[in-house]
Amino acid sequence: MKLCRFRDGGATRIGKIVGDNVIDLSAVAGTDSMRLLLQNFAALRPALEEVLAPVYKLSSVRLVAPIDDPQKFLAIGMNYQAHADEAAAAGIPKPTSQLWFNKQVSCIAGPFDGIEVPKASQKVDYEAELGFIIGRRCHDVPVEEALSAVAGYFVCNDVTARDWQFRSPTYTLGKSFDTHGPIGPWITTADEVPDPHALTLHLTVNGEERQRSSTGDMIYRIEGQIAYLSTVMTLEPGDIIATGTPAGVGIASNRFLQPGDVVRVEVDGLGAIENTVFAEP
């Protein structure tokens, strides 16, 4: 199932993508919060699968962030070897263990919303990533059971203000400017992704390809990420996790995003997000 949130007129609703259509799930979901839906998803899923109407053409509605109220937005740094190598060349030490940071949830943006270049930053960068969402409350999860905690997968751009990232060793400030967390276009449930480590992700800026890699090139696989994080903290339904970016980020070539740029991130089988860069007024 491909779960989405969409806006028609002034209302935001939860739906599912079927072909070129969106089927409104509001009557069964009873909420426009994906986090609340995921808390009861296993029980509600049979009823959600049976819903056949109301139907909207996908082209007639606006998709918004598939989840906008997670308790956590966590991301791992330098999780592809080629990216770790280019980061080292730019003066960023290679980590010797999983390197995690927070993106504040206020940075979340929709799959087709704009990315703002704030007046406070001159080095706004892109990072194509596979994201996933936690589906059940869990703590201290064994590696062999970890994938069972995943509700689904989505496309993410871990937009980063590099000049602010390096002002703090936690990275949080440089990762959390408003609009710097576009995600979507929907959540593809885990049962429809047989192997999350066999996907191709790629990013273009104004049609020029800047990043392309297989998710199989991750240093730390998703199950290892969940096991590591859940050793420290309880993961909750709706928590979102970004799994790292491959080589080709702007800092490696000193090419940062400029107003008017169009950034497109696609993960095969999961859809694409596309965001236009604009200057802070």
Describe this structure in words.
The model has no long low-confidence stretch (mean pLDDT about 95). The chain has helices at about 25-30, 35-40, 40-50, 80-90, 160-165, 170-175, 220-230, 250-255; strands at about 1-10, 10-20, 20-25, 55, 60-65, 75, 100, 110, 115, 125, 130-135, 150-155, 160, 180-190, 200-205, 210-215, 240, 260-265, 270-280. It has two domains: about 1-65, no CATH class; about 75-280, Fumarylacetoacetate hydrolase, domain 2 (Alpha-Beta Complex). About 45% of the residues are buried. The N and C termini lie far apart (about 40 Å). Strands 1, 2, 3, 4, 5, 6, 7, 8, 11, 12, 14 and 17 form a twelve-stranded mixed β-sheet that branches. Strands 9-19-18-15-16 form a five-stranded mixed β-sheet, with no helix packed on it. The protein is of the alpha+beta class and about 280 residues long. β2 (about 10-20) and β3 (about 20-25) form a beta hairpin. The protein contains eight helices and 19 strands. Helices cover about 20% and strands about 35% of the residues.
Average residue pLDDT = 96
For the record, the CATH architecture of the largest domain stands as: Alpha-Beta Complex
Order of helices and strands: EEEHHHEEEHEEEEEEEHHEEEHEHEE
- Structure classification: alpha+beta
Profile the largest sheet.
12 strands, mixed
In the predicted model, the low-confidence regions spanning at least 5 consecutive residues are: none
Q: Which strand-content bin applies to the residues?
A: 25-35%
CATH level-4 homologous superfamily of the largest domain? Fumarylacetoacetase-like, C-terminal domain
